[in-house]
Design a protein that fits this description.
- The complex is a heterodimer of chains A (240) and B (403).
- Chain A has a domain of 99 residues: Fumarate Reductase Iron-sulfur Protein, Chain B, domain 2 (Orthogonal Bundle), CATH 1.10.1060.
- In chain A, 52% of the residues lie in helices and 0% in strands.
- Chain B has a 4-stranded parallel beta sheet.
- Classes of the chains: A mainly alpha (240), B alpha/beta (403).
- At the A-B interface, helix 3, helix 6, helix 8, helix 9 and helix 10 of A face helix 2, helix 3, helix 4, helix 5 and helix 6 of B.
- Bound molecules: iron/sulfur cluster (2 copies).
- The site of one iron/sulfur cluster has 15 residues of chain A, from helix 3 and helix 6.
Chain lengths: 240, 403
């Protein structure tokens, strides 16, 4: 390792492994429109909410990627990549860089490669992924539980206590639901499951949480079978 | 002392006062225009463009670089938001109520998923092909249903614009998405404009003001422009030279002015709300701190508003719910938060609980309602009366007729 990296973290990870992941980020089709060089002006960092509360800087992401500094890249990939708020305030960049977009790609690479740091970052997140992939909506009314949002005050207690009645006391018919944000038709859920299979999205989950993958596969398999599909016969269209 | 020379084209180098400054859009429009690119793809047979037709009764308004955008008023297909429907149900209900009151036809579909971008921006457990296919499935459904899609969520709006950019520039992604859509038996459709509901509220603001029943002249309002509305693929966002000299998106702020309330500025208007996707669920200390220290406290100190308005799901949630814990720590908070649609509906006399569903919000709305001239005690009793009927089984649901 070069002398300047003598005190860097992840020294046990071979350069080739780090470079492989770096190349996956730089090789992503979205990447070419996200980095055009960097003035080091720091405008992105001045606009960045995460930079105010964490040891985090979008400028560092832009520079590290532009310099092809794979060692620091690997540190960012395993640590501060999860601090970003994905607000895209950094799109104020006068170079038209998109540090937030680079971070989106880096996170996907971390997930696709099953990095332990990604698993740790997403540990408390499984039920959200499950909700989105199985129902097509994420923010469900029954998430409003006082033990999940203790800091949101007494209205969460009231909502959760009255949930069933209050949901039915909303005029639009599609919103008389407690487990889903709105009533998603079965046909639409089935189409969504086909999308997850055809795009290899379900297999991404296997990298990060095998238990969740198995539960999701079972739910999807059942509905797809009812509609005449065999889940094992649905191949991803993006393998090539 | 000689005045500092500041780049301002002013003889003598003295900068003009803020009120005298003239902001003109001097930058060049980007050469590439998404509409031209979309229609080129249609010509090549790769996409069907869902056009805004006569039946949409559209209005043309100006976007970031001075180009025109058509905003449909009628026959709209409502791409709902999971956060709005799930946790702030008065948000979507107010949008539907405004449509009904103003006499427009709309479709509230069950054949709709969310944009699923939570798995993109929060957990990165998706990929461009999956995200494009989800977008196009929803758009194809709107096309087949014969209504024009209008998007409630700021993130879905921003994300679909990102999807549009990716589809335009990457033939391989178009090919992958086409193969998915073929398997679903659905056409490759993209709408000619990606339209956010707050743009609909914006073009309706004068019609809303004409039907206003409450006087808002004593109501001071701050506005939080949603990041994914005006920062993510910037060109589509609506601007107006008459408002902040065209330097800030005009949606929401123009409504406040049209309704006769006091539009108050504050220094951190460009900052995000602190939502952060992952953070609001699993690192909420960050969201709470940012929302209260950088947004709510700044508004309090600089404008002391009666209410703050925004036009996205996560922003309403974060700005509202973060205030309870901050209050417990004695911070300078306590600003009611709602959407532009709820504010507009209240102005037109909508029921604060049956329609605007304000009991789902955290910050106490009663002082605001009193200032607006709303009898909230009677209104709550009316809501409870219907809720009791639902509870006893006398009626299964509260309907529009019960409002
Ligand atoms: S997208 Fe991420 S890096 Fe960019 S400003 Fe927002 S938090 Fe900072
Ligand atoms: S704003 Fe752009 S040019 Fe400036 S430091 Fe950030 S990435 Fe580099």
């Amino acid at each position: 390792m070069d002398a300047i990296y003598a005190d860097s973290q992840f020294q046990d990870v071979p350069y080739e492994e780090k470079k492989k992941l770096f190349d996956q980020v730089a090789g992503d089709m979205r990447y070419e429109s996200m980095l055009y060089g960097c003035y080091e002006c720091g405008i992105c960092t001045a606009a960045c909410p995460s930079a105010r509360f964490y040891d985090f800087s979008p400028r560092v992401f832009a520079q590290v990627m532009a310099r092809e500094d794979v060692h620091t890249f690997y540190e960012l990939l395993n640590e501060s990549v999860w601090d970003c708020s994905q607000c895209f305030s950094c799109l104020r960049c006068p170079r038209q860089n998109n540090p937030g977009g680079i971070i989106t790609i880096m996170r996907e690479v971390a997930v696709n490669n099953g990095l332990q740091s990604a698993k740790d970052a997403l540990q408390a997140y499984s039920r959200i992924i499950y909700k989105i992939m199985s129902t097509g909506t994420q923010v469900a009314p029954d998430m409003l539980q006082p033990d999940f949002f203790p800091d949101w005050g007494p209205d969460v207690v009231q909502v959760s206590k009255n949930l069933d009645v209050w949901r039915r006391a909303i005029p639009p018919e599609t919103m008389h639901t407690t487990e889903l944000a709105w009533d998603v038709s079965e046909k639409t859920r089935m189409e969504l499951y086909l999308i997850w299979k055809l795009t290899g999205n379900l297999e991404m989950i296997e990298q990060i949480d095998e238990g969740l993958f198995m539960i999701l596969e079972e739910v999807m398999e059942e509905l797809l079978e009812e509609h005449g599909y065999d889940i094992d016969d649905i191949d991803s269209v993006i393998d090539d | 002392m000689t005045p500092l020379t500041i780049l301002n084209n002013q003889p003598g180098g003295v900068p003009p006062k803020a009120k005298d400054r003239v902001f003109d859009r001097k930058g060049k429009k980007p050469e590439l225009y998404y509409r031209d690119q979309l229609f080129e793809l249609e010509e090549k047979g790769e996409l069907i463009i869902h056009r805004i037709g006569e039946e949409q009764d559209a209005v043309e308004i100006e976007t970031k670089y001075g180009r025109k955008k058509k905003v449909p008023r009628n026959m709209t297909w409502h791409h709902k938001s999971c956060g709005q429907c799930g946790h702030i149900p008065g948000y979507s209900t107010a949008i539907f109520w405004l449509l009904r009151e103003l006499g427009y036809t709309y479709h509230d579909p069950r054949d709709q998923t969310s944009c699923t971008a939570w798995n993109y921006y929060a957990s990165a457990t998706s990929n461009p092909a999956a995200q494009a296919a989800v977008a196009l499935r929803n758009f194809a459904q709107a096309y087949e249903d014969g209504f024009y899609p209008i998007i409630h969520c700021g993130t879905s709006y921003g994300h679909y614009k990102e999807v549009r950019e990716e589809l335009i520039h990457h033939p391989k992604l178009r090919d992958q998405t086409k193969r998915v859509m073929d398997k679903l038996g659905k056409p490759m459709v993209f709408p000619e404009e990606v339209v956010h509901y707050s743009e609909w509220v914006h073009v309706m603001r004068d019609a809303i003001a004409e039907r206003q029943t409450l006087d808002f002249k004593d109501i001071t309002v701050t506005v939080h422009p949603a990041c994914h509305y005006h920062k993510l693929v910037v060109e589509d966002a609506v601007y107006d030279k008459e408002l902040y000299d065209g330097q800030r998106t005009a949606v929401v702020s123009a409504l406040v002015k049209a309704l006769g309330a006091n539009l108050a500025d504050y220094s951190t208007w460009h900052d995000c709300c602190g939502f952060g996707f992952r953070h609001i669920l699993v690192s909420r200390d960050f969201s709470r701190s940012f929302a209260t220290i950088r947004k709510i406290e700044r508004m309090k100190e600089e404008a002391n508003p009666d209410v703050t308005l925004t036009h996205d799901t996560g922003c309403v949630t974060t700005l509202d719910k973060s205030q309870f814990a901050a209050k417990a720590h004695g911070r300078n908070v306590g600003i009611p938060v709602m959407s532009d649609a709820q504010f507009a509906a209240l102005a037109m006399g909508a029921h604060p609980y049956k329609i605007c569903q304000l009991h789902w919000h955290g910050v106490d709305m009663r002082p605001l309602m009193e200032k607006m001239g709303i009898d909230h005690e009677t209104a709550w009793a009316e809501f409870e009366e219907v809720a009791a009927k639902v509870k006893s089984g006398e009626i299964e649901y509260m309907s529009w007729e019960d409002c």
